[in-house]
Amino acid sequence: QPTVGVLALQGDVREHQRVLTGLGAATLAVRTPGELDRVDALIIPGGESTTMWRLARTFGLLEPLRQRVASGMPAYGSCAGMIMLADRIEGGVTGQETIGGMDVTVRRNAFGRQVDSFEADLDFPALGATVPPLRAVFIRAPWVEKVGDGVDVLARVATGASAGRIVAVRQGPLLATSFHPELTGDARVHALFLDIVKEA
Ligand code: GLN
Protein backbone atom coordinates (compact mmCIF):
# COMPACT_ATOMS: atom_id res chain seq x y z
CA GLN A 1 0.00 0.00 0.00
CA PRO A 2 1.46 3.39 -0.99
CA THR A 3 2.43 5.97 1.62
CA VAL A 4 1.10 9.45 0.91
CA GLY A 5 3.19 12.20 2.45
CA VAL A 6 1.89 15.62 3.44
CA LEU A 7 4.46 18.41 3.19
CA ALA A 8 4.56 19.63 6.78
CA LEU A 9 6.59 22.83 6.65
CA GLN A 10 3.54 25.02 7.24
CA GLY A 11 -0.18 25.03 6.59
CA ASP A 12 -3.13 22.73 7.28
CA VAL A 13 -1.21 19.46 7.41
CA ARG A 14 -3.32 17.59 9.97
CA GLU A 15 -6.56 18.16 8.07
CA HIS A 16 -5.13 16.45 4.97
CA GLN A 17 -3.73 13.59 7.05
CA ARG A 18 -7.13 13.09 8.68
CA VAL A 19 -8.87 12.78 5.28
CA LEU A 20 -6.20 10.35 4.03
CA THR A 21 -6.48 8.21 7.15
CA GLY A 22 -10.26 8.21 6.78
CA LEU A 23 -9.82 6.80 3.26
CA GLY A 24 -7.57 4.05 4.59
CA ALA A 25 -4.32 5.47 3.19
CA ALA A 26 -0.98 5.38 4.99
CA THR A 27 0.35 8.90 5.55
CA LEU A 28 3.55 10.57 6.75
CA ALA A 29 4.33 14.21 7.58
CA VAL A 30 7.28 15.28 5.42
CA ARG A 31 9.77 17.83 6.78
CA THR A 32 13.12 16.41 5.64
CA PRO A 33 14.64 14.95 2.46
CA GLY A 34 14.82 11.58 4.24
CA GLU A 35 11.08 11.65 4.91
CA LEU A 36 10.44 12.66 1.30
CA ASP A 37 12.38 9.57 0.19
CA ARG A 38 9.99 7.36 2.16
CA VAL A 39 6.74 8.50 0.48
CA ASP A 40 5.22 7.38 -2.81
CA ALA A 41 3.14 10.52 -3.32
CA LEU A 42 2.81 13.94 -1.73
CA ILE A 43 0.09 16.42 -0.78
CA ILE A 44 1.15 20.05 -0.53
CA PRO A 45 -1.34 21.75 1.79
CA GLY A 46 -2.85 25.20 1.89
CA GLY A 47 -1.09 27.85 3.89
CA GLU A 48 1.17 30.61 2.66
CA SER A 49 3.24 29.88 -0.43
CA THR A 50 5.91 32.51 0.33
CA THR A 51 6.54 30.96 3.76
CA MET A 52 6.42 27.43 2.36
CA TRP A 53 8.96 28.36 -0.32
CA ARG A 54 11.34 29.95 2.21
CA LEU A 55 11.07 27.01 4.60
CA ALA A 56 11.56 24.50 1.77
CA ARG A 57 14.82 26.25 0.90
CA THR A 58 15.93 26.43 4.54
CA PHE A 59 15.20 22.74 5.12
CA GLY A 60 17.02 21.72 1.92
CA LEU A 61 13.78 20.39 0.43
CA LEU A 62 13.26 22.55 -2.64
CA GLU A 63 15.62 20.66 -4.95
CA PRO A 64 14.60 17.18 -3.69
CA LEU A 65 10.95 18.15 -4.17
CA ARG A 66 11.68 19.32 -7.72
CA GLN A 67 13.50 16.08 -8.49
CA ARG A 68 10.73 13.84 -7.14
CA VAL A 69 8.00 15.73 -9.02
CA ALA A 70 10.10 15.78 -12.21
CA SER A 71 10.62 12.03 -11.95
CA GLY A 72 6.88 11.34 -11.83
CA MET A 73 5.87 11.25 -8.16
CA PRO A 74 2.11 11.93 -7.92
CA ALA A 75 1.45 15.20 -6.10
CA TYR A 76 -1.65 17.12 -5.14
CA GLY A 77 -1.53 20.80 -4.16
CA SER A 78 -4.42 22.68 -2.59
CA CYS A 79 -4.41 26.48 -2.59
CA ALA A 80 -0.83 27.45 -1.59
CA GLY A 81 0.06 23.92 -2.74
CA MET A 82 -1.36 24.72 -6.19
CA ILE A 83 0.97 27.74 -6.30
CA MET A 84 3.90 25.50 -5.32
CA LEU A 85 3.20 23.08 -8.19
CA ALA A 86 2.88 25.80 -10.85
CA ASP A 87 5.67 26.37 -13.37
CA ARG A 88 4.79 30.08 -13.44
CA ILE A 89 3.16 32.40 -10.90
CA GLU A 90 1.79 35.92 -11.01
CA GLY A 91 1.55 38.13 -7.95
CA GLY A 92 4.38 36.40 -6.11
CA VAL A 93 6.81 38.25 -3.85
CA THR A 94 10.19 39.21 -5.34
CA GLY A 95 12.20 36.11 -6.10
CA GLN A 96 9.44 33.70 -5.09
CA GLU A 97 10.16 30.22 -6.42
CA THR A 98 7.98 27.16 -6.79
CA ILE A 99 8.54 23.43 -7.06
CA GLY A 100 6.87 23.50 -10.46
CA GLY A 101 5.94 20.57 -12.66
CA MET A 102 2.56 21.74 -13.91
CA ASP A 103 2.54 23.72 -17.13
CA VAL A 104 0.25 26.42 -15.73
CA THR A 105 0.37 30.07 -14.76
CA VAL A 106 -1.24 30.59 -11.35
CA ARG A 107 -2.24 33.99 -9.97
CA ARG A 108 -1.86 34.39 -6.21
CA ASN A 109 -4.67 35.99 -4.19
CA ALA A 110 -6.58 36.20 -7.45
CA PHE A 111 -10.10 36.62 -6.11
CA GLY A 112 -9.27 39.97 -4.52
CA ARG A 113 -9.67 41.47 -1.08
CA GLN A 114 -13.41 41.84 -1.05
CA VAL A 115 -13.78 38.10 -1.19
CA ASP A 116 -10.83 36.86 0.85
CA SER A 117 -12.94 33.85 1.73
CA PHE A 118 -15.99 32.38 0.08
CA GLU A 119 -17.67 29.08 -0.69
CA ALA A 120 -19.14 27.87 -3.94
CA ASP A 121 -20.65 24.71 -5.40
CA LEU A 122 -18.59 23.33 -8.27
CA ASP A 123 -19.39 20.95 -11.07
CA PHE A 124 -16.42 18.55 -11.03
CA PRO A 125 -17.09 15.76 -13.58
CA ALA A 126 -13.74 14.03 -12.92
CA LEU A 127 -15.13 12.97 -9.52
CA GLY A 128 -17.52 10.65 -11.33
CA ALA A 129 -21.04 11.52 -10.29
CA THR A 130 -21.82 15.20 -10.83
CA VAL A 131 -24.48 15.09 -8.10
CA PRO A 132 -24.03 16.39 -5.48
CA PRO A 133 -21.79 19.24 -6.64
CA LEU A 134 -18.57 19.78 -4.73
CA ARG A 135 -18.76 22.40 -1.98
CA ALA A 136 -15.49 24.33 -2.30
CA VAL A 137 -13.93 26.61 0.33
CA PHE A 138 -11.69 29.38 -1.07
CA ILE A 139 -9.36 31.24 1.34
CA ARG A 140 -7.25 34.00 -0.26
CA ALA A 141 -7.19 31.58 -3.13
CA PRO A 142 -5.28 31.55 -6.39
CA TRP A 143 -6.81 30.74 -9.76
CA VAL A 144 -5.22 29.28 -12.88
CA GLU A 145 -4.63 32.03 -15.39
CA LYS A 146 -3.24 29.92 -18.27
CA VAL A 147 -2.88 26.21 -18.96
CA GLY A 148 -0.46 24.44 -21.31
CA ASP A 149 -1.51 21.79 -23.83
CA GLY A 150 -1.03 18.80 -21.53
CA VAL A 151 -3.19 20.17 -18.73
CA ASP A 152 -6.80 19.10 -18.13
CA VAL A 153 -9.17 21.66 -16.65
CA LEU A 154 -11.27 19.82 -14.02
CA ALA A 155 -13.41 22.62 -12.60
CA ARG A 156 -14.27 26.27 -13.07
CA VAL A 157 -16.18 28.76 -10.94
CA ALA A 158 -19.81 28.57 -12.09
CA THR A 159 -21.34 31.92 -11.21
CA GLY A 160 -20.60 35.48 -10.11
CA ALA A 161 -17.85 37.92 -11.01
CA SER A 162 -15.27 35.13 -11.31
CA ALA A 163 -17.42 32.80 -13.41
CA GLY A 164 -15.31 30.70 -15.75
CA ARG A 165 -12.12 30.98 -13.71
CA ILE A 166 -10.17 27.71 -13.56
CA VAL A 167 -9.90 26.30 -10.02
CA ALA A 168 -8.91 22.65 -10.52
CA VAL A 169 -6.40 21.13 -12.95
CA ARG A 170 -4.63 17.86 -13.63
CA GLN A 171 -1.50 17.10 -15.62
CA GLY A 172 -0.68 13.39 -15.55
CA PRO A 173 0.08 12.47 -11.91
CA LEU A 174 -0.18 16.10 -10.74
CA LEU A 175 -3.43 17.49 -9.35
CA ALA A 176 -4.13 20.99 -8.03
CA THR A 177 -7.13 22.84 -6.63
CA SER A 178 -7.55 26.51 -5.66
CA PHE A 179 -9.80 25.45 -2.79
CA HIS A 180 -9.56 23.34 0.38
CA PRO A 181 -11.41 20.00 0.16
CA GLU A 182 -9.74 18.97 3.44
CA LEU A 183 -12.01 21.40 5.30
CA THR A 184 -15.44 20.23 4.19
CA GLY A 185 -15.69 16.57 5.14
CA ASP A 186 -16.15 15.62 1.47
CA ALA A 187 -13.32 13.19 0.64
CA ARG A 188 -13.96 12.91 -3.10
CA VAL A 189 -10.99 15.01 -4.25
CA HIS A 190 -8.61 13.03 -2.00
CA ALA A 191 -10.17 9.81 -3.31
CA LEU A 192 -9.46 11.01 -6.85
CA PHE A 193 -5.85 11.66 -5.85
CA LEU A 194 -5.54 8.18 -4.34
CA ASP A 195 -6.83 6.76 -7.66
CA ILE A 196 -4.11 8.75 -9.45
CA VAL A 197 -1.52 7.37 -6.99
CA LYS A 198 -2.67 3.78 -7.62
CA GLU A 199 -2.57 4.33 -11.41
CA ALA A 200 1.01 5.64 -11.24
N1 GLN B 1 -2.73 33.31 -0.44
C1 GLN B 1 -1.93 32.17 -0.07
C2 GLN B 1 -0.64 32.12 -0.85
O1 GLN B 1 -0.40 32.94 -1.69
C3 GLN B 1 -2.69 30.87 -0.29
C4 GLN B 1 -3.85 30.79 0.67
C5 GLN B 1 -4.22 29.41 1.09
O2 GLN B 1 -3.48 28.45 0.91
N2 GLN B 1 -5.35 29.30 1.71
O3 GLN B 1 0.16 31.26 -0.62
From TrEMBL:
Keywords linked to the UniProt accession: Glutamine amidotransferase, Hydrolase, Lyase, Pyridoxal phosphate
Binding positions (L-glutamine): G47, E48, S49, R108, I139, R140
Pathway linked to the protein: Cofactor biosynthesis; pyridoxal 5'-phosphate biosynthesis
Which BP terms does GO give this entry?
L-glutamine catabolic process; pyridoxal phosphate biosynthetic process; pyridoxine metabolic process
Q: Does the keyword Signal apply?
A: no
A GO CC term attached to the entry: cytosol
Q: What is its EC number?
A: 4.3.3.6, 3.5.1.2
Instruction: Give GO terms: molecular function aspect only.
Output: glutaminase activity; pyridoxal 5'-phosphate synthase (glutamine hydrolysing) activity
Q: Which Gene3D superfamilies match?
A: 3.40.50.880
| Reaction(s) catalysed by this chain's protein | L-glutamine + H2O = L-glutamate + NH4(+); aldehydo-D-ribose 5-phosphate + D-glyceraldehyde 3-phosphate + L-glutamine = pyridoxal 5'-phosphate + L-glutamate + phosphate + 3 H2O + H(+)
List the active site.
C79 (nucleophile), H180 (charge relay system), E182 (charge relay system)
The UniProt entry, under CDD domains, shows: GATase1_PB
PANTHER family, per database record: PYRIDOXAL 5'-PHOSPHATE SYNTHASE SUBUNIT SNO, PYRIDOXAL 5'-PHOSPHATE SYNTHASE SUBUNIT SNO1-RELATED
The family note in this entry says: Belongs to the glutaminase PdxT/SNO family.
What job does the chain carry out?
Catalyzes the hydrolysis of glutamine to glutamate and ammonia as part of the biosynthesis of pyridoxal 5'-phosphate. The resulting ammonia molecule is channeled to the active site of PdxS.
Instruction: Tell me what this protein is called.
Output: Pyridoxal 5'-phosphate synthase subunit PdxT
Q: What gene codes for this chain? A: pdxT
